[in-house]
């Protein structure tokens, strides 16, 4: 009988980006870089993870996440693997809009808020589905690997729901600050 293993996941939100500072919705806009403070946050999380048995670093392909992952990779001495599955929730026409210019909109009749594609982008349900596919590619039982996943606030909140076996309507919208990391163990 195969031994049940575990995978230790270090979930890292990218450092502060220029659009975080400007209070603009980023979504899947690819080119938004880190601020100087964001680079400092990325270096701090890299130092916090130094000495861990990290075997893999996964990152969203968005610049702000990749810059953060590159700082971790420099300390860990291993390359970064990119995955579009780790991108932030796509927000369509809302990307680039200032938080101050947002207006509350009603949830369409017969839909759950997690199933609405605001701005013509992705719903929480869409992101949940792509993260289920991402999790399926994690190492198998018995590996005891430590994996770093560098992504975005909403994506990481939804990933936590996937890892806990919760559905897209059961995401906990907890605070996940820039440059913050959380460690979770997943039995495989």
Describe the protein's architecture and organization.
With 188 residues, the protein is an alpha/beta fold. Helix content is 30%, strand content 16%. It is built from 5 helices and 5 strands. It has helices at residues 18-22, 36-49, 63-76, 124-136, 153-163; strands at 6-13, 54-59, 80-82, 146-151, 181-187. A 5-stranded mixed β-sheet has the order 3-2-4-1-5. The longest helix has 14 residues, at 36-49. 37% of the residues are buried.
What's the short story on this structure?
With 188 residues, the chain is α/β, with parallel strands linked by helices.
The proportion of residues forming helix, as a percent range, comes to: 25-40%
Quote the average pLDDT. Answer: 94
Secondary-structure element order, as H and E? EHHEHEHEHE
Principal-axis shape equals: globular
Strand tally, please?
5
Biggest sheet character: 5 strands, mixed
Structural class estimated from helices and strands: alpha/beta
Estimate the strand proportion.
15-25%
Number of helices, where a helix is a run of at least 4 consecutive DSSP H or I residues: 5
Strand order of the largest sheet: 3-2-4-1-5
**What distance lies between the first and last C-alpha atoms, to the nearest angstrom?**
14 Å
Provide the low-confidence segments as ranges: none
Radius of gyration of CA atoms, rounded to a whole number: 17 Å
